[in-house]
């Protein structure tokens, strides 16, 4: 009787879902090989409910996609759901009353009990209401190394950032680009932020981005970071690619020795059928002792819609994205970590397991997207782009400008 009751209830739910099935457009910038494979898992799971995922992929980075997404929402042409990064990127849209809250779904699905770390759900919360679904945890703080490139240069694979920097001349002599780095400003800033956390430590990172301490930003600890950034820009000279996945491909093909990029790079290595520990090496925290990772990643927001059927489909999509099976399928292909702390990741590769161990140890802090405004981020992006592309700008000059930005940051 219990089994029959459960089957009838499931059948009724399925029938209701199909009866109200509708198309739902989802905009995102998941367009690289690994990202495309991952987003198909979301689409497959949503389509299985009887609804239909209408893919609204926007080529390019988030910097390209976000203005388009915001313009559509504010212009009265909202999509069914849209990607933003964890943090404050959709804050003004929420404040304007253009996004629906997900309180009922979150309560019914017990999100507060399963999402880990809890700061992810806090990042989706504004004035006590939940406005987004965190779908993954992306750690920026990685150094990806081509084992073949170091073998070609007759060098052991380095164990940390300092060893990698020391290998730069030998890599150049062997005809290998030391550091692959795309030309988009967000990639340069990401590398710079990685240096702050990995080489400067948690306290320095928080003094800068959480406390917005201009004195510390102008001090000797940050001077060391700008010296490391100077090393990085020299190692990156000659890396004439635009997109992050093109830079990752340089490492995959051993044209470059290394790339500092978030764990989404794993998806590209997987598409290329490369094996962690054999074909490439991954160093969390750039290989420095006691590494920390930031809780960056992606969240899905749902604009307010007038169509009741589409509004119902939004709730279905929110549930599907956080279901255990979908979380595993999506994140294994994306290279990111799931936001649920109760899923089986025994099939994760060595690099993801390293990230999960750091997460389990509690060595996580908020990302810059959560700590500073989009305007402050843009200012830092512009400065880092200038610094990395104009060798006449000294580390000291760049640090002074950076301290000024932090002094007025919000």
CATH superfamily of the largest domain: Periplasmic binding protein-like II
Global morphology: globular
Number of domains: 2
Indicate the CATH class of the largest domain: Alpha Beta
Total helices: the number is 22
What is the correct CATH architecture of the largest domain? 3-Layer(aba) Sandwich
CATH topology of the largest domain: D-Maltodextrin-Binding Protein, domain 2
Radius of gyration: 22 Å
Mean pLDDT: 92
Spatial arrangement of strands, main beta sheet: 2-1-3-12-6
Distance between the termini: 59 Å
Helix content: 40-55%
Give me the count of strands: 13
- Report the major sheet: 5 strands, mixed
- Structural class by helix and strand composition: alpha/beta
Q: Ranges with pLDDT <50 over ≥5 residues?
A: 1-17
